[in-house]
# Entry
Amino acid sequence: MKLLLSGRALTAAAVAVATLATGGSTAGAATAPTHPAAAAAPDISAAAVKAHLARLQSIATANGGNRAHGRPGYRASLDYVKAELDAAGFTTRVQQFTASGRTGYNLIADWPGGDANQVVMAGSHLDSVTSGPGINDNGSGSSAVLETALAVARSGYQPTKHLRFAWWGAEELGLVGSRSYVNSLGSAERAKISGYLNFDMIGSPNPGYFVYDDDPTIEKTFKDYFAGLGISTEIETEGDGRSDHAPFKNAGVPVGGLFSGADYRKTSAQAAKWGGTAGRPFDPCYHSSCDTTANIDDTALDRNSDAIAYAVWELSQ
# Structure
């Protein structure tokens, strides 16, 4: 998430040790929503998402400790995601742009089929800051979106609408990659996007369950999912306008998404509702060198990953 000096609070969830041991999903174990689309959406393996995170960590470690725009760690991250998608049957393309005198890259992946005049997009920024590997910010969103895309391929899902996934570059420099993409679209192409779903930081170690309140239909989709799990959500305000949904929203595209909190501090009321530690940031390692694979709450990562798949299936029917 793009840096902004601020401070407030969000949420947390306890880590399910038994789930880690089995590689299962806490969301799958809870009572699922009764809407028919919930049965169609697959359970996203937390172990699979964490395997992607481990790969991003290895890439950062091998490339100066980060995956930042214009650095070799970013391009290696993009190449990893692209190879996974290519092997799964997606049509991928790399879009170039320039920011701060360096070449940047977006990765766009289209799943064949569906109505090209009704496009559902899910995206996340793939770059980190220069000071750390960016595993929660935003390896978490990037890995969950990747695993959701791979689940589409594994299931052979053929939705009514066209599915498109994206990984953005240079978000940390001011949403440069996503803005470049939106600006590259003509008005007719923008109008074809029926919804853009953004996922930036979904595994914060002292997590909250926050839902964007931009488009009512998308907002309700996520709220219904978490309500089916007995999890109370709050409206996301900390990251409002600070992530890659903003260029889409400004262009008139319906947007929504999930967030587990950054440097704002969790209130006592939020800790009572979600667990975790009141008075501490949702992510104490936000934009720091300690944003490693140890900086992830597995339960939040699992629940949010399952919610992404649910929304993709629900909104693309």
